[in-house]
Amino acid sequence: MSRSVKKGPYIADHLLKKIETMNSNNEKRVIRTWSRASTIFPALVGHTIAIHDGNRHVPVYITEDMVGHKLGEFAPTRTYRGHSKNVEKTTKKK
């Protein structure tokens, strides 16, 4: 279910404050965050944000195409290592 239009998009307060101070000082540095549910605003474009995936922080460079999406969409939490190979199942004896 999506968020109410009346409420507007969600962004963590601490993340927005850090971005606003960096934009006013013309700084570019990596910001670590655990807030995967925050929506990407136009103010975030051009910054690198390290998003927590449950194990480590994945650095993501924010572009214009990402505006409106959630931060968590760009840091997958699961790693696919392929299907296991079982010799008995692949070679059937008749």
Can you offer a commentary on this structure?
By secondary structure, this protein is of the alpha+beta class. It has two helices and three strands. Strands 1-2-3 form a three-stranded mixed beta sheet, with no helix packed on it. Strand 2 and strand 3 form a beta hairpin. The longest helix has 13 residues. The termini are far apart.
Query: What letter string, H or E per element, gives the SSE order?
Result: HEEEH
Distance between the termini: 52 Å
**Order of strands in the sheet with the most strands?**
1-2-3
Radius of gyration, rounded? Answer: 19 Å
Strand content: 5-15%
Largest sheet: 3 strands, mixed
Please provide the count of β strands.
3
The low-pLDDT segments are: none
Globally, the shape reads elongated
Q: Which secondary-structure class do the elements indicate?
A: alpha+beta
Mean pLDDT: 89
How many distinct helices?
2
In helices, the fraction of residues equals 10-25%
Summarize the structure.
The protein is 18% helix and 14% strand. Strand 2 and strand 3 form a beta hairpin.
